[in-house]
Amino acid sequence: MPEVSIVLVEPLYDGNIGFTARVMKNFGFTRLVLVNPCPLGDDAVMRASHARDVLDNARWMTVDEVYREFDFVVATTGEVSKSVCTPMRLPYYTPTEVRETVADIDGTVAILFGRENWGLSNEELKRANLICTIPTSEVYPILNLSHAVGILCYELANLPRGTYPLAGPTEMESLYRHLDAFLDRIDHPDFKRENTMILIHRVLGRTKLTTREVSTLHGLMRRTEWHLENKE
Amino acid sequence: MPEVSIVLVEPLYDGNIGFTARVMKNFGFTRLVLVNPCPLGDDAVMRASHARDVLDNARWMTVDEVYREFDFVVATTGEVSKSVCTPMRLPYYTPTEVRETVADIDGTVAILFGRENWGLSNEELKRANLICTIPTSEVYPILNLSHAVGILCYELANLPRGTYPLAGPTEMESLYRHLDAFLDRIDHPDFKRENTMILIHRVLGRTKLTTREVSTLHGLMRRTEWHLENKE
User: Fold this and answer.
1) b/e map A181-203, b = 16+ CB within 10 Å
2) Which of the two ends of chain B, N or C, has the fewest CB atoms closer than 10 A to its terminal CB?
3) Residue numbers of B between 8 and 27 with CB closer than 8 Å to A
4) Among the record's GO biological process terms, what is one (chains A, B) (predicted)?
């Protein structure tokens, strides 16, 4: 199975961090990443129970570092923020669909979970390969953080060993830079730019490009650019 | 979808009862049944959060009452007690298989969850239609109670409306009594009796018999009994 890390972005209650460590270990996951968490006190240790090791081995990173290090990043949003219908948060995948999508990835996968009160910011979401929303009741859609993590871990457990070599984050970044420059080249209006780049990000993100495919896309753009030059 | 109730048997920590109420409501379930629970204090109310109504409307029953009232009863066991390999706890179904099995039931379904420390007793398990075990890591298989409930609720959410009319618990009980009497009639040894009856229970339990099928089975046994009489 792909190497899956669970990333908690600015969790507010250390009890939830402890419960997250526990339910991760329950399903065989040990890689916990904490982004600027609340202080870890007795609640964290108590709720982690026999997953103390997961808690102690947690890595502290920034969201930016996560996007730069991991090959495939899934950002989770609640039904609520989904209803705040920005292109940023759509399309969303269910945990089962996420499982199917990452199943064959041979690389590192990070799953981002936002703050208990307002989740992930658009800034934190927009670079994600995939958006995941757990289908919940409209009456009371707010899952406890550790319950949400538990359901993702349950779905992702026992995935077959990945065999799908992904292009790394650096390659993808240079592709996106090339695309951005290409949009300049064809006078794509600035005011539309961000949303267009986000859309491109969503599409290419979930496409799981290989290194070969990335260089082919560069090639196609270079070829187009050459013809644009030589028309003038 | 079938009318699903979550039954907590002698839960030890009221925080888990609160979290259970919350995660139930997150997935649209409102029927909570408590069997001789610990006192419900602030932790229960706090963790229930906006699912206070589920907590307040919880019914108090005995395990025996549950088996007498509900059409289909699923008993959950951990990987651990599964490894205590009694016929009582086998075969076990995964939450996905439980979902598929109860999907078309038009009746009442109860899902039993045992105590945090040692789960359900054999006595509490043996009358169940189905045994369910959530596949977990061997390293740390003990799920928090509310995480286990959450995963079952997540799987069972959004089930289609059931269309499969089940024979009620009373009809099934009389069938099992008839079968037991029939075993007497064919001199089935007492020392094997309990395990045999449990096996029959497991088989007919998951078969989801209709009223018609139950009476047919009675008929077949009566016919056999008649021939047994008239041979002598």
Assistant:
1) ebbeeeeeeeeeeeeebbeebbe
2) C
3) 19, 22-23, 25-27
4) methylation
Mean of the per-residue pLDDT values of chain B? 88
Burial of A20 (0-12, 13-18, 19+ CB in 10 A): buried
Q: Select the residue from A99, A154, A156, A159 to test the B interface by mutation, using most B Cβ atoms within 10 A.
A: A154
- Count of residues in chain B: 232
Q: What is the DSSP string of A73-114?
A: EEEE--HHHHHS--GGG-SEE-HHHHHHHHTTEESEEEEEE-
Within 8 A of B49 by CB-CB distance, chain A residues are: 142
State both tokens at B105.
Answer: 């039931």
Smallest CA–CA distance from A151 into chain B, residue: B151
Q: Which residue has the tokens 């990070």?
A: A110
pLDDT, tens digit (0-9, with 9 covering 90-100), for A34-61: 999 999 999 999 999 999 999 999 999 9
Residue with token string 């019914």 = B59
- Closest CA–CA distance from residue A19 to any residue of chain B (Å): 8
Query: Rounded distance, CA A94 to CA B178, Å?
Result: 47
Q: Which residues neighbour A179 within 8 Å (Cβ) at sequence distance 6 or greater?
A: A197, A200, A221
ipTM for this model: 0.75
Closest by Cα among B123, B130, B75, B70 to B100 = B130
Rg of chain B over Cα atoms, rounded to whole angstroms, equals 19
Counting as low any pLDDT under 70, the low residues of chain B are 1, 80-90, 158-164, 231-232
Q: Does B117 touch chain A (CB under 8 A)?
A: no
Percentage, residues of chain B above pLDDT 90: 50
